[in-house]
Amino acid sequence: MFNSLSDRLTATFKNLRGKGRLSEADVDATVREIRRALLDADVAVPVVREFAGRIRERALGAEVSAALNPSQQIVKIVNEELVEILGGETRRIRLAKTGPTIIMLAGLQGAGKTTLAGKLAKWMKAQGHSPILVAADLQRPNAVTQLQVVGGRAGVPVFAPHPGTTSDLETPTGDPVAVAKSGVEEARQKLHDVVIVDTAGRLGVDAEMMDQARRIRQAIIPNEVLFVIDSMIGQDAVNTALAFDEGVNFTGIVLSKLDGDARGGAALSVSSVTGKPVMFASTGENLDDFELFHPDRMASRILD
Ligand code: GDP
Question: Which residues bind GTP (predicted)?
Fold first, then answer.
């Protein structure tokens, strides 16, 4: 991730070394290179335009600093703007003041929701919480079983529509809204302080799926709705994120598959276009491949 973007930006800044002062032409040439590097990394066009505009404005207006040479000054500006575009401060889960904290997951099929459910549950358990997973994805034949496997690996119970045998679960029927509500009720009764509700995804955004997710949201009133997005989906990221934001008004973003060789554009675009923070990064298939997302650390990694 970000290797190519990182190399391109580093090379661009190298060109400025040794310059005592930056002319407008230097700034323009640098901003042009930054813009190209971001576009090649699949960052959405409007995001690149705004980002480049801000860098140019700040670089031209920058005070001459005794402590920083012009190249360092531009790196500092780009760093600060990258942190901003990635959501600013690290945003943590908002815990409910009373009753269980309800976390709903939404996203396309294959985005990594079910895997994330296990990762998040394991992570919260390690922090002293007592999570329960709720299988409200009744669309995909194996989704319930898969969540049960993930729950087993995380050491966390799973509330499923049919507490029967595996073969019963292969064709789950029923109403996902009712399952989600019952799952939350189960959490209350069994005194779990965190409920993570997995919902159905489709291969593409469709009205029926979105309506179902919206109805689940209305029924369980979650403290957080996390939109899980595959970092590899490139330019499609923006439209998918906007559709989900309109559909379920998510509260935070989880970038999955950050370990892949994606060019990084999705990561930089989704937070910017929706105004919602990236909260977690998912970096592999193991349940421990998961971390809180720190915009400042990610920006430093890009500019390394
Ligand atoms: P869902 O359809 O949204 O529930 O997605 P899944 O959790 O089933 O994930 C789809 C596929 O992506 C599975 O094969 C997962 O093992 C894999 N996967 C999920 N998260 C990650 C990740 O962070 N990195 C990698 N490399 N693979 C992941």
Answer: 107-114, 198-202, 256-259
**Ligand 1 atom with least separation from CA of 284:** 24
Decide: 279 and 252 in contact? Cβ < 8 Å.
yes
Whether 199 is in the pocket of ligand 1, judged by its Cβ within 6 Å, is no
Helices first, then strands: H and E counts in the chain: 12, 8
Q: Using an 8 Å Cβ cutoff, are 143 and 135 in contact? A: yes
In the sheet that 224-230 helps form, which strands lie side by side, from edge to edge? 158-159, 131-136, 194-199, 101-106, 224-230, 252-256, 278-282, 290-292
- Calculate ∠ Cα 235-237-241, nearest 5°: 145
SS3 234: coil
Whole-angstrom Cα distance, residue 234 to residue 78? Answer: 22
ipTM at complex level: 0.98
- Residue from 256, 259, 282, 289 to probe ligand 1 pocket by mutation (most atoms less than 8 Å from CB): 256
Distance of CA 209 to CAs 22, 266, 301, Å?
A: 52, 22, 36
Structure tokens at 89: 């401060």
Mean pLDDT by 10 residues, the chain (304 residues): 81 82 88 92 91 93 74 90 90 94 96 96 97 91 91 96 47 77 94 96 86 96 97 86 96 91 78 93 94 91 83
- Cα–Cα distance between 139 and 121 in angstroms, integer? 22
